Amino acid sequence: MITEGHFGEYGGRFVPEALIGALEELEAAHNAAQKDPAFIAELAELQRTYTGRPSIMTEAKRFAEHAGGARIFLKREDLNHTGSHKINNVLGQALLTKRMGKKRIIAETGAGQHGVASATAAALMGLECVVYMGEEDTRRQALNVARMKLLGAQVVPVTSGSKTLKDAINEAMRDWVTNVADTHYMLGTVAGPHPFPTMVRDFHKIIGKESREQMLALTGRLPDAVLACVGGGSNAIGIFNEFIPDTNVRLIGLEAGGDGVETGRHAATITGGSPGVLHGTRSYVLQDENGQTIESHSISAGLDYPGVGPEHAYLHDIGRAEYRAINDDAAMAAFELLCKTEGIIPAIETAHALAGALIVGKELGPDANILINLSGRGDKDVQTAAEYFGIPL
Amino acid sequence: MTQLDQVMAKVRQENRAALIAYIPAGFPSQSGCAKAIQALADAGVDAIEIGFPYSDPVMDGPVIQEAADISLNGGTKAADVFAALKVASSTGVAAVVMTYWNPIAKYGVEKFAQSIADNGGSGVITPDLTIEESDAWIAATAKTGINPIYVVAPSTKDERLKSVTAKTGGFVYAASLMGVTGARNSVSSGASDLVARVRTVTDLPISVGLGVSTREQAKSLAAYADGVIVGSAFIKLLLDAKTEQEGLDAISHLAKELALGVREGR
Question: What order of strands is seen across the sheet that includes strand A10-11?
């Protein structure tokens, strides 16, 4: 059962008391905005004239030849301004930040997509922006660091812990506890304390809304399966949400299997983790027998996170969505295949969903229609991909 | 009545504040931790908080983060926390554990409370457990007779202070400022405002933490608070010491100074 701030036994608020006031203020601002025609109109205008919504739907015919003959449709969130779905959420949160009278935003980023999107929204709306990024990720995603700086953001490399997304969130929360009076924490995924999982979903559910209409228009029926990659899970919730009542539509989240779930070096939180509390919410967590978080591993910086949004944990437990792990090598094979069959370079995160489609397509057979959230473009991943495929730079 | 309740009653009778020291289990080493606890007790602290280090301590500044890393790299587990708790309580001081919620949830909520009681512990400070998520924990602490100690912050509204302190036992942990743990040059004026606000909603003792490191600060807090909590300052001394003995001598010296401070405030 979904109650205020909880998804079954998941979700909630596990945060220092110092943040409760800010979370309550944010929840109230979000609830009011969702009912305010002026807010809705302002956001819709930005989506149309700035993001470039609605994003188009592309049928991937040549790619589909490798997926058992099923028809495959790509929801092109990669064509949004800033190159991923992340812009949907940051524009909404930036408008809320202004409504709350705050002047400064902080954000965490793994791959850099959310950091770039946050820096973009901050520039657009005249807000100060500080982005926390694991030092390891600043190396993997140097191009995005430069983009954030060009956009006027300050990028703070985080050197604690595993030096990746998890530690960037820790550092952002420490900043927030200290500066909460004038600062909004622009969390980039459907995790964290209430209201973040609900609010971030609300800003992304336009993906599923558009997709449902586009699929009906293109094929005359609902898709048989909807696939998306899952790190924290924001693009997946965004495209799943509209289809949750359509129980004939299978919802499949593809987690980062890294070197393989059996090796322990992975980021497949639902597949290989257990219920626990991390970053203010109860969900699945990669943890040891003492409740210490285990470092995750993935070739994709954006999926390299040992937690997952609480609504995914709930959808998994009630059996409404399924979650599978895709190893690094399978993701990179699908990455290459999409490049060479469709002329689209996907984000490595997204490549996990593409790899999932190659498997699910064969399971469902040639009559199936499969919808994939093409959540981001791969420009930022060119260096990682070149290294992986041995292309000299 | 826990040992902590007794200590807080005693210092109220003596018209002074209690000195409460924090040290993570397994820091600076497993054996070093026991020695540090003994040194603190010998120097006159009234209560000791044993930290159960956690991989993602969002309320802690760099000093306690470093100590937690050292402890976790040394393999600290729940059993080591309970062992340290036992060492502390056997010195005669009140002993509590401070930890984030996930290690408790993973260990088993009721089992954790029982282990605290079994090892002479008086209670547990849970900085990221909100009262809304506390039903199982409140039941477990009531059943085992230990104090559930909650933290309140300068941003906590009066109405909420009432509901948080209604669930609290032992003392109310008042965070002196908006921020993470770590020594500050001055203790924020927000501390006295917060303590005054808490006084209006509860008769529980109130201890102030975050940013305290000197005798002068302890003295000024003791003027209006029932307890003064010091953590990062001790840990910094242990981190900076060239040898373990040097570190133990340094924390002993600081604890003696602070023990004077909490007696000079009124």
Answer: A2-3, A6-7, A10-11, A281-285, A274-278
Q: Which residue, among A188, A256, A253, has the nearest Cα to A226 in the 3D structure? A: A253
- Say if strands B147-149 and B123-125 run parallel, antiparallel, or are unpaired: parallel
Which of B55, B58, B59 lies closest to A292 in CB terms? B55
Residue A65 vs residues A214, A233, A340, A341, A365: alpha-carbon distances, Å: 22, 28, 13, 9, 11
Give the integer Cα–Cα distance in Å for B214 and B231: 11
Token pair of A204 as six digits: 């992304």
CA atoms in the 13 A half-sphere facing the CB of B94? 25
Residue B211 falls in which region: left (phi positive, over 0), alpha (psi -120 to 50) or beta: left
In Å, what is the CA distance from A47 to each residue of A89, A97, A148, A206?
11, 17, 21, 10
A165, two tokens: 């997304």
To the query of whether residue B49 is one of the catalytic residues in this protein, the response is yes
**What's the CA gap between B110 and A145, in Å, rounded?**
46
Nearest to A346 by CA among A369, A323, A380, A371: A380
Give the pLDDT confidence of A161-173 residue by residue, as tens digits.
Answer: 888 889 999 999 9
Rounded CA-CA distance A26/A195 in Å is: 7
CB B139 within 8 A of CB B162: no
DSSP B105: H
> Contact A318/A333 with Cβ under 8 angstroms?
no
| Cα radius of gyration (chain B) | 17
H helical segments located in A269-347: 269-272, 310-317, 328-342
The SS3 assignment for B64 reads: helix
Q: What is the ipTM of this complex?
A: 0.96
Name the pTM for this structure: 0.96
d(C-alpha A224, C-alpha A249), whole Å: 5
Whether the predicted pLDDT of A69 surpasses 70: yes
Comparing alpha-carbon positions, the chain A residue that sits nearest to B154 is A18
Pairing label, strands A265-267, A250-260: antiparallel
**Taking CB atoms and an 8 Å cutoff, what residues of chain B touch A276?**
102, 105-106
**What is residue A303's three-state secondary structure?**
helix
A27, A77, A84, A86: which is the annotated catalytic residue? A86
Residue A348 has a pLDDT of: 97
Q: Which of B61, B106, B44 is nearest to B81 (CA)?
A: B106
Give the gap in angstroms from C-alpha A285 to the nearest C-alpha of chain B: 10
C-beta separation of A183 from A106 below 8 A: yes
Summarize pLDDT for B151-182 with one digit per residue, the tens: 999 999 999 999 999 999 999 999 988 888 88
Residue in this structure with the two tokens 């993935």, named with its chain if needed: A298
Angle at A310 between CA A105 and CA A76, to 5 degrees: 70
- pLDDT of B197 reads 98
